[in-house]
Amino acid sequence: MTAPRSPVPTAPVAPVAAPPVPVPRVPAVAPPEAPASRRKPLRSRLGPYLLLVPALVPIVVGLGYPLVRQFVISFQEFGLAQQFGRPAEWVGLQNYVELLGDSYVWGVIARSIAFCLVNAALTMVVGVALAVLMTKVGRAARITLQVGMLLAWGTPVLATMTVWQWLFDSQYGVVNWLLAEPLGMESMRYHSWLIEPLSFYGVATVIVVWMSVPFVVFTVYAGLLQVPEECMEAAQLDGANAWQRLWNLAIPMVKPVLFVVALLQIIWDLRVFTQIYVLQRAGAPTRETHLLGTYIYSLAKEFSMAGAMATIMLVITLGLTTFYIRRMLRQEEV
Amino acid sequence: MSAPVRRRRPSAGRRLLGVLAVVVALVWVFPVYWMVSSAFLPTNRLRTAEPTFFPVDGTLSNFRRVFADPAFLDSFRVSLAVTALTLAAAILFAFVAALAISRFRFRGRKTFIVTILVVQMIPAEGLFISQYQLLDGWGLVNAVLGLTIVYVAAILPFTIWMLRGFVSGVPIELEEAAMVDGLSRTAAFFRITFPLLAPGLVASGVYGFLQAWNEYTLALVVMTDPGQRTVPLWLQGLVEANRATDWGVVMAGATLVTVPVIVFFLFVQRRMSAGLVAGAVKG
Amino acid sequence: MTRVRKGGVAVMAAALVAVSACGGGDDDGGGGSGGDEVRLWLSGTDTPQELRDYLVETFEEETGATLVIEEQDWNGLVPRLQTALASEDQTPDLVEIGNTQSPTFTYAGAFADISDLYEEIGGEKLLPGFVEAGTVDDTVYAVPYYSGARAVFYRKDFFAAANVQVPTTLDEFAAAAVALQAANPAGKPNFSGFWFPGQDWYNGIAWIFSAGGDLAVQEGDQWVGALSSPESQAGLAQVQQLFSSATAAPRDADSEEPWIPFNNGESAMFSAPTWARWSIDLPECNKGVDPEDESAEAEALLAEQQACNEEKTGVFPLPGNQPGEAAAVFAGGSNIAIPAKSGNQELARDLMRIIFSAEYQTMLAENGLIPGNQDYAGALGDDVYAQAALAAGVDAKLTPAAEKWADVEGARILEDFFQEIASGTDPAEAAAEADQLISDTLN
Q1: Which residues does the UniProt record annotate as the domain ABC transmembrane type-1 (chain A) (predicted)?
Q2: Across the interface, do B61 and C83 touch by the CB < 8 Å criterion?
Q3: What is the β-pairing status of strands C66-72 and C37-43?
Q4: Is B247 part of the contact surface with chain A (CB cutoff 8 Å)?
């Protein structure tokens, strides 16, 4: 792996076409790290903090406080009655003990982790592949693909989930029709896709990947655009083929973006809610198909339980991502 | 533009890839196509033994009924206001924060980075009660501004992270070279790095736009006044407008709701295709 | 490029100004408590416009105050009530709530005590199951607004072709459904004698109720699941028979839109709330009228279409164990209550009195809803739909009035349970499991 500060074997060379660029050759001397903060006046030392203030205020108020409250509530008995004024009772770790003592909850956790890893991996592979494809095609094809992705991403979920439900409907589903009519698989004509948990998760995976890939494509494509053209051309002159250029040059350079996107996919797929919720309501056996998101929701009237479950989910997510986070922090040290 | 370098003879391989891209786009768009196609059909033809793939004998009636609904334009107005305000605030705040954490070294920086990451890992399903109480205390329930505040808070951590990734993607050597030439750090950042961030800003902007435009759960509790509905609330209302849902009308409504998303994207996508060379040249 | 960016900033700045102005304006208008404005939250579209106008006018005449009606969607109503009812500034002064959601909020203390009003607005005449759902320890908090019953719709031509008569008992119903299924008079590959999808517990519990069983019963201060009781099991045996030999409906489907296969000619019977008559749309009757066409000609055609549909379809209340009896079907409907945090308690009570006045109750009935006060159900009319609704409505039964019943529905325990029955699982085994889950959830 390459540290982000020295990613480019062929450092930005002088542009071929020599336009009036304010980017001169890279100086051989490494500039001072952490530009000498001690000597700067106070105003400059406060600078970064001032830059953070506008972001911090809404986060602390709109998100931080509710999150802390959710955490506090997880140690109380807090339901709808408390919402209407009945005093909340402190119960210590009871909510956690109750949840973690239930073997069903462990099953839900295991399923969620498996679902999350499969979906995040599939989404990343398909998303990165399509992003690379976007850099390789002409403008018309690229915009077609972009708009297609955007439609999948930006159409109201209410409508797309209804359509997906129709597509996989047992009696009138287009999927079954296509399998039965043009493909001649008569046994599939009234196939129930949602009744078996494994088949249910298969359908859910198709939908989740379909909805998540566009985000990956857009972000990674934006990242790939940052790779200086000059580097690619220099590498090409050095005889690197397209695959080598991609793998040894472009991918390492967009690593920070890939890292963020992968992390977010893991976070989001672990708490996947809407797709599972709608499919359950379309006729799947609920208890056998719960993932953490829908399970928390089914506890939602017991706010304290939902809070405890949220904390447990945080721990799981941290467990799944510690490796990456530590690696990232180590890079920050450099 | 990058034209002179990139636009060489379109090789056979490149054309093949172009075809592949279009095919992928068509497959991906199929469910959305099904929505649009359904919008042209009367409800009694939506779910039948023989699916209708092309609404050749379709009707515009569903669309006309959407436009006849006065709540449609009202909800559009509310959603546009919320989305524009959210987007402007989130991008601006996130951008300066990303600048701070990727180009300055200061005490508490790492804590901040880890905190905004961890914040995103906590399921937020149970937060709406506290958020509602906050807004209620400030008299901001049923107000565009109130909804915007919670949206900005929800989108910011992600946007900061995203932009930070993009800032890190720009080799710091480029800036430092400019500093050697006598520019201040801030000036170097804005002259050199900022233009390179255009694609990242666009990607984050699209994300923020979609989040604010399509969010349902918080809007549901914050905007209870029928006159302050956002677009997703209005759409849900269409589902219940009659005792038996008229799905053709819902699909027509959803199709129209998607239009601003596409318009917004086409408006910003030029920034995305510009890429490094163009940015560096003009910056 | 620079120009573009500046333009963008300008647009954003303009939006900021416009929106802050807009946000500021809302502040003074917000809230609703205090002053002489009373806000009523009605759920869904069941209350016709005519009735809303009546309420607004009458309320103003009688009290001099203004009534504002805000319609809320059923979907998402619970989170809205969880937040708004707890806020003194935002709470409506009167609220309509689903009958199965009613115990949850009543027990939580969301509503004001209206026991002293109970006799005045109807007392014993109010639908008893609904009153029970709004009562805690003999204190009344929520009272019935309206109820809607379920009835069975059938295709007359299919009945004739299969030589089946309208059933008069539950056993005959099962026999008819099986005979129709076997005869397949429509000649469709996936024909259902009775459309009965796997998760359709709303219809399925009628067999449990009619056999004398229940979903859960109170023992001391505990609720226990009652699906394993001999009565419930007897009903479930019939249910399983229907699933196995009277329907081709998917196991992975719920009670939504049962008229679709009916309209497609793929089922001979379905059970639904009586308003489903407006959703029956047989292709042979369809005149292809544009729904937004309001010309006299179009309306005439639509009337003709509806007449054609209603001529080809019949309706009957699901029969009970003996001829002449109706089955105990599930009653849908809603309650109405005054939020405890409302600052307009007196005006809200005045509005409550108007809602339970003879005039308004009669208007509800005239619009096809079984009114909260049974005395006025006679105004439902005498067509077959009204009669079926009335017959079914009299014996209709609610889900248990347990504080946490909404959690049982939220966890979809009954959907899963009926799906198991549809899949051929032994009813005793499935019931034992479901009873355990219900008991755990309710206590």
Answers
A1: 109-324
A2: no
A3: parallel
A4: yes
Residue A300, pLDDT score? 64
Residues B55 and B42 sit within 8 Å (Cβ to Cβ): no
Residues written for chain C: 443
Q: What is the pLDDT confidence band of residue C2, given thresholds at 50, 70 and 90?
A: very low
- A108 near A309, Cβ under 8 Å? no
Q: For residue range C315-336, what is the model confidence (pLDDT) as tens digits?
A: 999 999 999 888 989 888 899 9
Share of chain A above pLDDT 70, in %: 85
Which among A83, A194, A288 has CB closest to C108?
A83
Task: Say if B219 is an interface residue toward chain C (CB within 8 Å).
Answer: no
Does the predicted interface ipTM exceed a cut of 0.95? no
DSSP code of residue A247: I
Q: Does C125 touch chain A (CB under 8 A)?
A: no
Chain B's closest residue to C25, CA to CA, is B143
Per residue in C91-100, pLDDT (tens digit) is: 999 999 998 8
Contact C197, C251 (CB under 8 A): yes
Residue of B150, B162, B276 lying closest to A229 (CB–CB): B276
Which of B180, A235, A283, A81 is CA-nearest to residue C254? Answer: A283
Q: Per the confidence metrics, is the pTM higher than 0.90? A: no
Average the pLDDT over C339-365 and give the result: 94
Residue C197 touches partner A, C-beta closer than 8 Å: yes
Two domains, one topology: C33-148+331-394 and C150-330+401-442: yes
Chain C CB contacts of A176 under 8 Å are none
The structural architecture, per CATH, of the domain C33-148+331-394 is 3-Layer(aba) Sandwich (3.40)
Q: Which two tokens stand for residue C282?
A: 């047989």
Query: Is the CB of residue A319 less than 8 Å away from at least one CB of chain B?
Result: no
Chain B residues touching residue A276 (CB < 8 angstroms): none
Task: Choose the CATH number for A62-333 among 1.10.3720.10, 3.90.1330.10, 3.40.50.720, 3.30.110.30.
Answer: 1.10.3720.10
Distance CA C306, CA C298 (A): 12
Q: Does A51 touch chain B (CB under 8 A)?
A: yes
Using DSSP, state whether C314 is helix, strand or coil: strand
Sheet holding C150-155: strands in order across?
C269-273, C150-155, C313-316
Q: What is the least distance, in Å, from the CA of B24 to any CA of chain C?
A: 31
Average pLDDT over residues C419-425: 94
The predicted model gives A189-201 an average pLDDT of: 92
- Residues C388-402 pLDDT 10s: 888 887 778 889 989
* Domain assignments of chain C as residue spans, ordered by start: 33-148+331-394, 150-330+401-442
Give the distance from residue A287's alpha carbon to the nearest chain B alpha carbon, in angstroms.
Answer: 19
The count of CB pairs under 8 A between chains A and C is 87
Instruction: Report domain extents, chain B.
Output: 64-282
Q: B202 near B243, Cβ under 8 Å?
A: no
Domain B64-282 has CATH 1.10.3720.10: yes
- Choose the closest CB to B32 out of A17, A151, A325: A151
Q: With an 8 Å Cβ cutoff, is B130 touching chain C?
A: no
Closest residue in chain C to residue A194, using alpha carbons only: C252
Whether residue C152 is predicted with pLDDT greater than 90 in this model: the reply is yes
